[in-house]
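@channel sequence for tomorrow's demo:
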Amino acid sequence: MMTVTINDIRQAIKLLELSGMPVCIHSSLRSFGLVEHGAETIVAGFLAEGCTVLVPAFSDAAYAIALPDLPHMRPARNGIHYERLAERFYMGGNQVYTPKSREINLTMGLIPKYIVEHPQSVRGNHPLTSFAALGPLAQTLVEGQEAQDVYAPLHTLTLMHGSIILMGVGLERMTFLHYAEQVAGRSLFVRCANGPDHRPMLVSLGGCSEGFGHLATTLAPMRQTLMVGQSSWQAFAAGETLQAASQAIKAQPSITHCADPDCERCNDAIKGGPLLIM
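structure tokens (generated this afternoon):
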């Protein structure tokens, strides 16, 4: 079995013509097979090509708390049955997130974990669904993220003519498509975390992504594919992808629905998302 090296990563980036560019990656390290030095090699290959690497670094497992019994914090059509909240286990307690926090959901994978723990990485200011970046443009990419502007890094990525790369994962893991939902006119869902003053605050985030594979035909014209080791890569230019995906969602809202007809997040998203009380 071939071992993936830093040179393999660099060659892939060159073939995709992404050297020097910001890229948002969603990845399965396991999909590569054997990788020399693991996640470090994948990231080092991008940095060696002058790229800035942006990754989702979600930490809701550590910081989410139950929504208080306040009407403005429990909007209708919010992808959740409030009467069932007692059945859910929220870990946040009294913890307060800061961009210096290092907690990250285990499901994010080893590459985001490596970036979050890197001493030179920069992390956004969102307690549940932050982004983290490493490279020359890291600060610029994530500095706009805050509780009510969760996808600011993806907006900046688009303005910078960046790209999204799926490494051994499908469209269901492509957080950028939640940004496309927002651009298409959907209100984002809200959940709760402790604010800097330890008081509960609402934060915005995306919903169910298990139906995003239905956008494959729409996004096929802007997709580049490549095999790196055993990992199947799909690369998408952010600007073209945003335009195509948001238009498709506007034209056919149900296109993002997952296989579960009773999915409350999908059903509420298709209706336009939560009815926020100002």
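heads up for whoever presents: The radius of gyration is 19 Å.
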